[in-house]
Amino acid sequence: MEEKTISNSRRCYKQWLCFMVLFMSFSVIYVDAVWPMPQMISSSMARYTLNPREFIFQYSSGSSAQPGCSLLDSAFERYFPLIFTDYRAARPRQHNEWFRFPFTVVVHVERAECEGYPDADSSESYKLSVCSGQAALRAETVWGALRGLESFSQLVYQDDFGEYFVNETEIEDFPRFQFRGILLDTSRHYLPLHAILKTLDAMSYNKFNVFHWHIVDDPSFPYQSSTFPDLSSKGAFHPSTHVYTQIDVKRVIAHARLRGIRVLAEFDSPGHTQSWGKGQPGLLTPCYKGTVPSGTFGPVNPANSSSYKFMTHLFKEVTSVFPDSYVHLGGDEVDFTCWKSNPDVRGFMLKMGFGTDYTKLESYYMENMVNITKGLNKTAIVWQDVFDYHEKIPVDTVLHIWKGSPGQIQQELSSITLAGYRVILAAPWYINHIDYGQDWEKYYTIQPLNFTGTEQQKKLVIGGEVCMWGEYVDATNLSPRLWPRASAAGERLWSDEKMTSSVIDAFPRLVDFRCRLLRRGIQAEPLFVGHCRHEYQGI
Amino acid sequence: MFATLKFAALLLAVVVCWATQDYDYNDAEIDEEPTLGDSPYGSLWPLPQKVQISTVVFKLSGASFHIFDAKASSSGASCRLLQNAYRRYDEYIFTSSRKQGQNKSKKALASDMSELQVWITSADSECDSYPSVTSDESYKLSVDSPVAVLKAPKVWGALRGLETFSQLVYKDEYGAKSINRTDIHDFPRFAHRGLLLDTSRHFLPIKVILANLEAMAWNKFNVFHWHIVDDPSFPYLSRTFPQLSQHGAYHPYTHVYTPSDVKMIIEFARLRGIRVVPEFDTPGHTQSWGKGQKDLLTPCYSGASPSGSFGPVNPMLNTTYDFMSMFFKEVNTVFPDAYVHLGGDEVDFSCWKSNPDIQKFMEQQGFGTDYSKLESFYIQRLLDIVTTTNKGYMIWQEVFDNGVKLKSDTVVHVWMGNKVEEELQKVTEAGFTTILSAPWYLDYISYGQDWQKFYRAEPLSFKGTDAQKKLVIGGEACLWGEYVDATNLTPRLWPRASAVGERLWSDRDVRDLNDAYSRLAKHRCRMVQRGIPAEPLFTGYCAHEYKGV
């Protein structure tokens, strides 16, 4: 923790109403505590001592969410020990218990969607006022209330004697981008459930709201499908220890929901599907060597109607298992050599009048996939390749940019939004690529809207995503490789760009936030030489 | 992937380990993805000098199999080091199967292999000694029914042999512990196989150090080079000068190594045949020393007045040398190893140059403006002090480069990345023993399979006589602490350091990347199963994934 006086302080406007004795201090241990930076924050040096024995969460009387709102009730239980990290009886007192001067966090929610799922249009804005011996948190939705609770928990700090404090603070906050995702790849390495759940915890501390689950790919198919159990029994690394059962998937979705995180499932096709072929004979294209099959297989066979029948069944299951209204169809890096080698595929090309342009075949396949998705009332997200090769995709499809030099990325942003499509930017945040030194700065200084286009076009950039591809990552190194590097992108996607343009200002805040993550049991690696008061206690 | 089902079937013939392929390589070579395939040597890592594995398979049952002393062994029940090792390896070999309750299933599982006898052949087992640079680590292992015999002159070889034995055991397709008839004769190529950890840039909790000592033993490393203090912090709690850590550590109680911590680490290491060589680096890299020891560092000047900042140790004051004698006297008693590392690297002269007293002293001594002479002056006196404590010393290469007079048993530590071969040539030509770290700075990370780069490095590729080559006594993998602490140290270290481990233990001709990949992937899964979060080499899986988070 670093000592700092606060220059930009606005007195609590209800100051005259405060009856409590305030502890004033002029050398407060206080940093600009909240990561990512709220849109508007002001705080004074006046601070309250918090006592875990005299601290409660309460619903305001006018709030549409009241006790029994499972989502917020469980958030209160979660945040109590996150706020009072040393307090062993990690349980908030009941609101009817008697206190002398309880510090109350009063939560007011306009619309209670306590049993719902967060979705693309969920409001996450909130207002938080720490003043008059209490904290008032107001939000339109429970999702906004979750973000506000996170901010409040980060405002609380401890001095050297272990006492807890919170300064008078006013926050008005909302995300800059609606889609703030993290991609985990569970195909190249299987990630045990606990590693995924832990990542979701850390995501909520960073206000990420989409878990993009790249669940299957060439190397393995760990998703246990109830319709096609052979896919994982033959395609997973191991049919029972290296799979996600329906119960596992439900658990991930439930854990994410409670943290205001959407689970966006990706079933990438027609490429990246080697593992599918093991449990679904006939799905992949047999490659030929001259006039005979070589024994190897290529992408999904787009010439067979059975492929689409299979996909319809699979996605029917997928869209019922994953409640989100979006589904990721992949569509990247399709290698045409196998299709070209196969006489049946060539015959199909001829029949369809595609000539020798295999991108037309790919487009044909993706068009079918998007239509299947549409028929299931879901919106498709696809990798940029689909746009690059094709003009005829439905206009509500979301494009996902994953490649290119900075210049190419800007160009791609321009042309996709010019065509009227919404877009998610992932290319600058391929966090699986590692380098010596402080590469978080690179992720921090990305300007997602720095491309040529109208205001209208810029609005079509709905957010960004940090991708942790799995070639070199599994449960042994995922957490320290992800955090706090992903936190840099987290702030870029949530906060105002002008307020957070300086790497130098961000550094001490991120150092501090990293120690906070550690304290919460997240194995976040150091930014540079230094220490945390509580070091990581595992190995 | 450890102990794959196909393992036994793949051992189609008796294979003799004498890989004779010698790859031409250079650093610019593009890393190729090694093709997957099982090595005939299973999961052995580092590869023993001579191995014969037959297709004959024996079964081991956790209930009846035991490791114990051979009757003729010079070591017995009183040798705590070996008894501890037996228990440790018994657990490594059987943990998972015992959990499944196999030890209850008595004789139903016929046990072909009932015991491993450990036979220390020389009169003095060295059970109660500390390992040293001359310790004999050789062993012979003969796995046959009904007994396997591990023969070693000293306990150190027995420790290495036990690790090898545990690596030979695998699960057959029914999950039964199995081992092939095997003959091994093994010894290290280099005597000094070290790992440097830096506890100054980030404090490493004891638990992390112990876990990595354990992993070192699995990789047959035998030196823990403890870079214990440096500029950022001074976590070593000195009995003589407690104020050093009181003021110089990140925190005087939570971020220090107490005398009992240090003792525990040294004993834990000894039980695994690992030396602990502490480094107290001077005269540079000493900012943290200055906080607890007034007047030790040189005050820097800005023009005619002190700037308030400090430079290297002040070499012109007698108090400096009084301090150093007392301090190293303590170090000598705390650390039993025959060597101490005195550092001596990267001394910045700008502060010395700015200080008028130093300038005067330079004049008096007739050094002119050659500040490397002042550095040598300091080092020379320091070496004399350490010599009186009967310790040998190791120093970073600059000390040699600057022409400081060194005792003949000094170990020169080569770390600079440029002109490595030239440096090795020069150091050995001058008759000094040397260890190499330059190719093995593991703190430098990059995307992809960089273990291959570490694996390809060859310490003896420089031009020199056989006598010169013999002076290269080994190498060290260094994990400097700028970007590493308890959160990421272990996965960053393993299995990347394992590549260095094999280079330093196995024969020079063991350099087939495909074979190494296959063995190393299994070895890393074994480390994961034993509880160390060793990161993956590439896409794939372990039967038992890492359970911690």
Characterization of the model:
- The complex is a heterodimer of chains A (539) and B (549).
- By secondary structure, chain A is of the alpha/beta class.
- In chain A, 33% of the residues lie in helices and 20% in strands.
- Chain A has 17 helices and 17 strands.
- Chain A has helices spanning 70-83, 142-155, 193-205, 230-235, 246-258, 274-279, 305-321, 337-341, 343-352, 358-375, 385-389, 406-418, 440-444, 455-459, 478-482, 485-494, 503-519; strands spanning 40-50, 55-59, 103-111, 126-131, 134-141, 157-158, 164-173, 179-185, 210-214, 262-266, 284-289, 292-300, 326-330, 379-383, 398-401, 422-425, 461-468.
- In chain A, the strands form 3 sheets. An 8-stranded parallel β-sheet of chain A has the order 10-9-8-17-16-15-14-13. In chain A, strands 1, 2, 3, 4, 5, 6 and 7 form a 7-stranded mixed β-sheet that branches. A two-stranded antiparallel sheet of chain A has the order 11-12.
- In chain A, helix 1 links the parallel strand 2 (55-59) and strand 3.
- In chain A, helix 3 runs parallel beside helix 5.
- The two termini of chain A are 24 Å apart.
- With 549 residues, chain B is an alpha/beta fold.
- Chain B is built from 18 helices and 18 strands.
- In chain B, the strands form 3 sheets. In chain B, strands 1, 2, 3, 4, 5, 6, 7 and 8 form an 8-stranded mixed β-sheet that branches. In chain B, strands 9-10-11-14-15-16-17-18 form an 8-stranded parallel beta barrel, surrounded by 5 helices.
- In chain B, helix 2 packs parallel to helix 3 and helix 8 packs across helix 11 (371-388).
- The radius of gyration of chain B is 25 Å and the shape is elongated.
- Chains A and B meet through helix 3 and helix 15 of A and helix 4 and helix 16 of B.
Please give a quick description of this structure.
The complex is a heterodimer of chains A (539) and B (549). Chain A has 539 residues and is of the alpha/beta class.
Annotation keywords:
heterodimer, A: 539 residues, alpha/beta, eight-stranded parallel sheet, seven-stranded mixed sheet, 17 helices, 33% helix, disordered N terminus, B: 549 residues, eight-stranded mixed sheet, eight-stranded parallel barrel, 18 helices, elongated, Hex-like_dom2 (chain A), glycoprotein (chain A), glycosidase (chain A), disulfide bond (chain A)
